[in-house]
Specification:
Distance between the termini: 42 Å
Radius of gyration: 22 Å
CATH topology of one domain: FAD/NAD(P)-binding domain
Mean pLDDT: 95
Helix content: 25-40%
Structural class: alpha/beta
CATH superfamily of one domain: FAD/NAD(P)-binding domain
CATH class of one domain: Alpha Beta
Strand order of the largest sheet: 7-6-15-16-17-14-18-21
CATH architecture of one domain: 3-Layer(bba) Sandwich
Strand content: 25-35%
Low-confidence stretches: none
Largest sheet: 8 strands, mixed
């Protein structure tokens, strides 16, 4: 058994694990990152690209914002179309100057990987049989296999950034955790293409034929989505069929501008809400998809993971810089407040913008529920107060202040 030591073991080399490692490393807090797949595989994951103001700020604090600032697009607003009638949500004006950044998650991950490699901080890719152990003790360990050898890392804390299917959440005994889940009766068919986007900013579209989203990755790369049944197949959708249906659902002026082309990638993603409580067990902390999943309607998945990272990073800074180990006990409480707020916003946006058809929702027929949600959307879009509520949550709520244990 090969023996290693570090302050924090981070399980998972996605953007949340890499960002946590980057932030801690810049404060002199040592980390080792373990990842079950290769770095190239991690970079091959196609994910969303809208970053909240707080996420942008944390990437700047981590020292990895140079390429984002040069290549990312600052978006001052977003459009919501209700059966062809477009309302502009002026994020900048309604939130006192906050914005969002269009910059792909793959690019965020690439920047973080490069920064970690440059700093020569240890990352083990393609590991197997990762096992967090003694997580309720003063010195937990993590064992894993790498290139045919077995390793054991002694550490102070473990950050589980290894996603829904990872080992971290399963390390918490079943009787010690409560899991909440809602499965939505539809999915998103996404298409990525090297075509000019139909709009300078995102367009969320509610339509009688189903939801659509006109998104973008850059001035020359577009990402579009269509609501489809959960049992639909990518093979049922040729590129021509996708473009034809998208034109039906987006506003007429946008449809007239739409440039079509060959798809780079097409996939169907199911929609669901998931929360695990608590988000910590002893010295093991759950971060990102290991603890929660949100439907993509409000562009919150990566941003909520970054919020977890921010909370844990600030807590661990207090632990190592001020010796306040007791303050780590508040991680789950603080993180879950934001998680449930974000889950509610994503659920609310999903309900308002999607078509449930005849599927029963909340004890009523889907068509009746749909009429309620159309009225709800009309109400919020028709007043500045309603648009402000959407804008404040879309750009991201402020991070909570971490209190010292003596203040609790």
């Amino acid at each position: 058994m090969n023996k290693l030591n570090t302050h924090v073991v981070i399980i998972g080399a996605g953007p949340s694990g890499l960002l946590l490692g980057q932030l801690l490393g810049r404060q002199g807090i040592d980390t080792i990152i373990l990842e079950r797949v290769s770095g190239d595989y991690v970079l091959g994951r196609i994910r969303a690209g809208i970053l909240e103001q707080g996420t942008v700020d944390m990437l700047r604090e981590a020292g990895v914002s140079q390429r984002m600032e040069a290549e990312g697009e600052v978006h001052h607003g977003v459009d919501i179309a209700n059966n062809g009638v477009v309302t502009h949500i002026d994020l900048h004006a309604l939130t006192g100057g906050k914005t969002v950044m269009c910059y792909g998650q793959v690019e965020v991950t690439r920047d973080l990987m490069a920064a970690r490699a440059e700093a020569s901080w240890p990352t083990y890719y393609e590991v197997s049989d990762v096992q967090p152990q003694a997580v309720t003790s003063q010195q937990p360990t993590v064992t894993f296999s790498y290139k045919g050898a077995r390793y054991q890392i002694s550490c102070d804390y473990i950050a589980g950034c290894d996603g829904y299917h990872g080992v971290s959440r399963q390390t918490i005994p079943a009787e010690k955790r409560t899991e909440h889940e809602r499965i939505y009766p539809f999915g998103w068919l996404g298409l990525l293409s090297d075509t000019p986007p139909v709009s300078a900013e995102l367009i969320y579209c509610k339509h009688a034929r189903g939801f659509a989203l006109a998104s973008r990755r850059s001035a020359t790369r577009s990402r579009y989505y269509l609501q489809v049944p959960t049992d639909d197949k990518v093979e049922n959708w040729s590129d021509d069929a996708f473009w034809a249906e998208l034109k039906r659902r987006i506003p007429p002026a946008a449809a007239a501008r739409l440039v079509t082309g060959k798809s780079i990638e097409k996939s169907i993603a199911p929609l669901r809400s998931f929360v695990c409580e608590p988000m910590q067990y002893g010295r093991l902390f759950l971060v990102g998809d290991a603890a929660h999943i949100v439907p993509p309607t409000g562009a919150k998945g990566l941003n909520l993971a970054v919020a977890d990272v921010t909370i844990l990073y600030r807590i661990l800074c207090r632990v190592y810089q001020e010796g306040d180990t007791a303050c780590a006990l508040q991680y789950s409480e603080i993180a879950l407040r934001r998680v449930w707020n974000t889950e509610r916003f994503s659920w609310w946006m999903s309900n308002m913008l999607h078509d449930y058809g005849a599927t029963e929702v909340s004890g009523m027929a889907g068509h009746t529920f749909g009429r309620f949600m159309t009225s709800e959307l009309d109400y919020y879009l028709s007043s500045e107060a309603g648009r402000t509520l959407i804008a404040e949550q879309y750009v991201g709520l402020p991070f909570e202040t971490i209190k010292g244990s003596e203040s609790k």
